[in-house]
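We read letters as residues; the integers encode the fold. Take this protein.
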Amino acid sequence: MGLRFRKSIKLCKGVKLNLGTKSASVSVGGKGFHQTFSTTGRTTSSVGIPGTGVSYQKSFSLKNKFNELFGGKKESASKLAQSDKEAKAAAKLQAANESAEAARQQVAEFEAAVDELRSIHKACDISVDWNNVREPELKALSERILKGDTDAYLEAVELAGPFDDLVEYGSEFEIGTDDPAVLEVEFVINSEDTIPGKVLALTETGKLSEKQMSATMHYELLQDYVCSTMLRIARDSFALLPVQKVAVHATDMVVNTATGNDEQQTFVSAVFDRTAFDNINFERIDPSDTVGSFKCNMDFKKTKGFKPVEKVEV
């Protein structure tokens, strides 16, 4: 058993100073009631009935009381830290969701653009019936067109602008004719400005993947775009003018390796007739197959693309 040192000094009536090895205390009161205040922070209250042996004692620590009164602040700080952590996690999740949504949007726009290049032929202008023109300002023009005036054809093309919406693909058009039954249209492919160079897709984790478009995909998309545009030109021409045939020539600027100069050459040339067009379901066709079913010059390889060809004679 260890030694214990305790000394009590009476300071005045009812007040004592108690000295121990590790702490000191002050006792206040008499036999019926007294309190002891220790330097450790503990306070002890004693109540007793003299001569009966009956007493009650209660102790409490200032440290415990402090924790009881102010411990809630520590808990609030802990909750605040947890809330901050949850807020950061939520913000990170939201940023990830926004990034994934942006990636999906970019891929959707890319796929829509590719589909549009293959579907140009599906749209068509409303047919003009020059026999039933009622507008006074067009009456004279309609009479000239019905008489086969080719100059009137060109005026109608300039007035109606049937190919204006195709200019967004970078195409340039040259229209001419000296035969009232035929319209001839030449357009520039502008493949470098029209066909995308990269493929956008989503990874398994929903992130954006951007890769160089393969040569095969590039050339196949180029062929579909060119042929779809040719069909659209023919459809709009038949809708505007009373011609029976439309010759369409797709050209592009290429380097002549012999001279080193850029030269415009023909890569696809076809002649379309009105009767055959009336039997085509343009919503379900493959544009390249359809163009190839007409009188056509086209030298195309999936791995090499187009080679220059001669224009088809109408």
